[in-house]
Every structure is written in C-alpha cells, then in structure tokens.
UniProtKB/TrEMBL annotation:
Gene Ontology biological-process annotations: carbohydrate metabolic process; purine ribonucleoside salvage
Record flagged with keyword Disulfide bond: no
InterPro entries: A-D-PHexomutase_a/b/a-I, A-D-PHexomutase_a/b/a-I/II/III, A-D-PHexomutase_a/b/a-II, A-D-PHexomutase_a/b/a-III, A-D-PHexomutase_C, A-D-PHexomutase_C_sf, A-D-PHexomutase_CS, Alpha-D-phosphohexomutase_SF
Family under the similarity heading: Belongs to the phosphohexose mutase family.
Start and end residues of each Alpha-D-phosphohexomutase C-terminal domain: 431-482
Protein name: Phosphoglucomutase
PROSITE patterns referenced in this protein's UniProt entry, alphabetically: PGM_PMM
Keyword vocabulary terms for this entry: Isomerase, Magnesium, Metal-binding, Phosphoprotein
Keyword Isomerase: yes
Pfam family, one: PGM_PMM_I
Positions of the Alpha-D-phosphohexomutase alpha/beta/alpha domain: 5-139, 177-277, 283-393
Length: 487
C-alpha cells in the first residue's frame, strides 16, 4: 500500500522507521527538487539543516544526496542547527530555499521534513500542495510536469564526499557566526550587559544548544545552563517549553536568584520563559509585553499580526497607538506572510512562535529569549511587574485552551452543528461577531471570545477562550461544552 505523505501546519512529520523512512525522505526530497526545478531556481541551491533526533545526520545526508543527484547545489549545515538559523542561511547564500529535518516539539519517536522557500519563512499552502502533487506523481511513476528528474542511483548511506567530485557538489557550512551577527543587530546587547542580569538557559537537549549561551555570555550575563547536550530522548519528556515541562528550570531560577529562565524547543523555533519568581510567562502574556516594549522603548510603529487563537490584548495596544491588527488562521506561515506583506513590526501565536520586523519571517525562539532579556534590562522590572503595568493600562484578559477528545462519530456530528452555530449570547453577553477564518470564533460585546477548532488528524476539538475574569472564562467553557455536547 502506498503511504500518503502530506504537509501539515509546519511540514510532514512521521514516526521514525514506520513512516519517516529513508525511502520516504528521499521521495520527498525528489519532490522538492522537482518543485525547485519547476520554478527555475535549481542553480541557486538548497540549504539542508537538521536537529538532534535519532539518525538526524543520516537523514540530512540522504536529502543532500538526492538534491546533488538532481544537479542542485547543497549547503549542508554542520551539526544540529535551529530552524530559524537554517532559514537565515537561505539569505546568506541567496539559496532557493531550505529543508529542515525536525519534528520540533513532537515526541522522540518522530521526525519531520520542513520545506522553507526562498523568502526564509514557512511554505504557504499553494507551495506544499505542489510538493504533495509531485510526491503522488513520483509514487505513481509519473513525470513531474514538463521536467524530468534524474533516476535515483547508488546505495543508501553513501558518504557525501563521494559526490564532491561532481560539478554540483555539497558544501558544508556553519551559519552560526552570520546568524549571531544578524541577531545582535536586532537586540540591545549593550543594555543587557549593563543590567547585570543572571539567567538560566534550557535548550531542552535540542538544536538550540550554544546559541543563547554564546550571545548572552558575550554580553556579560551571568549564566547557568542545563540540558545542553544531545539526547534524542529529550530526558524522557517532550522538547516543548511549556509551564508543565519546565519544572527544573523554574526551580533553578528561584534557587539561583536569576532574573530569567529561557527555554527553547527541539529545533529552537519556539520559546519558553520563566520570570524571576519562577512563574511561567505564557506566549499570550509575552506577546503583548513585547509589542508594548517595541512601541514604548524602541519607538517603533507598525501593525501586529496574530492568529485567531492569540490574545486580543494585542488589539488593545494596537488601538491605542493607531495600528492595524492582522488576524490569520493558525500556522506561522500566515504570520510570516503578514510580516512580509503588511510591514508588521511583530507577529506571533499563542503556541510560542514569534518574529519581528527586520528578521526573517520564521518563528525564532532564540530571538524571543534575547528580547525577553532586553525587556528586563531596559525596563528595570521583572516581566511579572511589567505585565502588571500593562494590565493596569489596558485591562487583564484570561486565556485558556481545552483539548476535548470525541469519537469519530461525535466529531462528525459536532462539525455539522458548527455550520449553523450562532448563539445570540454567551455568558450573558451578546455575540457581536462570528469569524470562520479557522474554526468557529465568537466575539462577545465585552471583548471576550471563544474559538472552536477541530483537529485535522484526530477526533479532537480545541476550545480556546479569552475572558475578562476567571469566572467568565469558566462560564464560557462550560456553556460551549453544553451547547455542542462536548464531554
């Protein structure tokens, strides 16, 4: 049976040795090569990066070999490389794009294949659709449009050095220095250095090892670093920097009297932040803080981009400063598009991804951690204290996401109900607006909102609520579950 390979919100992912096999990885690489050739960009070459998972080096070499076989030059990143650094390497080389082999924050048995086009941000749906079409044609033994690929040859696992005598060889490259120089231009490292900060860094055994340590260490920050060696099992947990997974980081921050704890996920594109008191700062809290900092301290002016599931506190800040807000479906590819096309100074999502003006349109946890340090240094306050200042001026909002499992039959029934789901009021507030950009979102008269999004792969619904009080949040959650019979 032919295995169907599809690209989700951030690439194709599968279980190593079951779905994510050398055969399938090489197949997807040939489909990307066909896409690049079809765009007339083959001569510009492709960057190949990878994280710290099982067989990471071997998978990266397999992808590089396939591109070389098709006459496409390859810039192979040396060692584990974060997704944002791999993306930035596109700019360094003027490449046609990059492939990042990572499953990001997914469990250890998974790996993934992410294609990043020449603009150095996540591939938009029309691009991944074309790659998926190429995959299907290759599986069926059909040519990919008007161009042909060189038939695969040789044995799996051969060394790249065997390809180097060819005209289109594979060049190894370490983008560390170029990336660090660029990122230093976006952050006030002098202010960080003057502040006498102490920080604890947790790269969670992932590809981000060495980046925050180097940049902050050079700036003069006193550092403690944990989980900074390769472990494909990620210490027996998920490489996802959330409040639940950062217990050790919290305790180290408190025990050492640090100003910040900064964590990265498996490929360093998402961030996790612990404040001086050991409190986890959620992305829905950090994004408004950062927008406030960009507007007030840096003096920037410009729109903000957020997904449908991300806090509307950003909207309140934007309204005061006369700036538009661009709402998008879930997926950083849409945020990246707004950063490119709408001149946004900040784009972010509630799941822990962000980027700013002047950077690539790809989420970057390293940049987020550095900006957190800059904020503490410039304001002379902890992030919690700064958050209270923002709440005092703009009001506080309470956000939470519930994941509710159903049976496949229940999911189908609820999806049918959602087509006409338009209550006049919820939690005693009139429903002001219904948004169906991604799922079903109801915005209430007092600014509270609820979003119901079905999973694309599981019998599961995600219910996001943002409210003006904990009581209203609980009431909205319960009422939506009752109305849709979600249990």
């Amino acid at each position: 049976m032919t295995h169907k390979i599809s690209f989700g919100t951030d690439g194709w992912r599968g279980i190593i040795a079951k779905d994510f096999t050398f055969d399938n990885v090489r197949l997807v690489a040939r489909a990307v090569a066909a896409y690049i050739k079809g765009q007339g960009l083959g001569e510009r070459g492709l960057v190949v990066g990878r994280d710290n998972r099982f067989l990471a080096e071997e998978f990266a070499e397999a992808v590089a070999e396939e591109f070389v076989q098709q006459g496409i030059p390859v810039f192979l990143c040396c060692g584990a490389t974060p997704t944002p650094v791999t993306a930035y390497a596109i700019k360094i080389h003027g490449a046609a794009g990059a492939v990042m082999l990572t499953a990001s924050h997914n469990p250890p048995p998974y790996n993934g294949f992410k294609f990043i086009p020449e603009y150095a941000g996540p591939a938009l749906p029309h691009i991944t659709k074309k790659i998926e079409e190429n995959i299907a044609k290759l599986q069926a033994g059909e040519p990919c449009d008007a161009y042909e690929l060189t038939p695969p040859e040789g044995r799996y696992g051969r060394l790249l050095e065997e390809e180097k005598p060819r005209a289109c060889s594979c060049t190894e490259h370490n983008p560390f220095d170029d990336y660090v120089k660029h990122i230093a231009s976006l952050v006030d490292l002098q202010a960080i250095g003057r502040a006498g900060l102490k920080a604890v860094i947790d790269p969670m055994y992932g590809a981000g090892i060495g980046y925050l340590e180097h940049i902050l260490g050079e700036a003069g920050v006193q550092l403690e670093v944990i989980h900074n060696h390769r472990d494909p099992l990620f210490g027996g947990t998920l490489p996802e920097p959330t409040g639940k997974s950062l217990a050790e980081l919290k305790s180290r921050v408190k025990a050492g009297g640090a100003h910040l704890g900064l964590a990265l996920d498996g490929d360093a594109d998402r961030f996790g932040i612990i404040d001086a008191g050991g409190e986890y700062i959620t992305p829905n809290q950090f994004l408004p803080l950062l927008y406030y900092h960009l507007l007030t301290v840096k003096g920037w002016r410009g729109p903000v981009a957020r997904t449908v599931a991300t806090t509307h506190l950003l909207d309140r800040l934007a309204a005061k400063y006369g700036q538009p807000v661009y709402e998008s479906p879930v997926g950083f590819k849409y945020i990246g598009q707004n950063l490119l096309e709408k001149d946004c100074i900040l784009g972010g999502e509630e799941s822990g991804g962000l980027s700013i003006k002047g950077h690539i349109p790809e989420k970057d946890g390293i940049l987020a951690g550095l900006l957190a340090a800059e904020m503490v240094a410039c304001h002379g306050k902890s992030l919690t204290e700064l958050l209270q200042q923002v709440y005092a001026e703009f009001g506080r909002l309470y956000s939470e996401r519930l994941d509710i499992h159903t049976s496949p039959e229940q999911k189908a029934d609820i999806l049918d109900q959602l087509k006409d789901f338009a209550p006049d009021e919820l939690a005693g507030q009139a429903v002001r607006e219904k948004i169906t950009l991604d799922g079903t979102k109801l915005v209430l008269a007092d600014g509270a909102w609820v979003l119901i999004r079905p999973s694309g792969t599981e019998p599961l619904f995600r219910v996001y609520v943002e409210a003006n009080s904990p009581e209203q949040k609980n009431q909205l959650q319960q009422q939506v579950k009752d109305l849709l019979k979600l249990r």
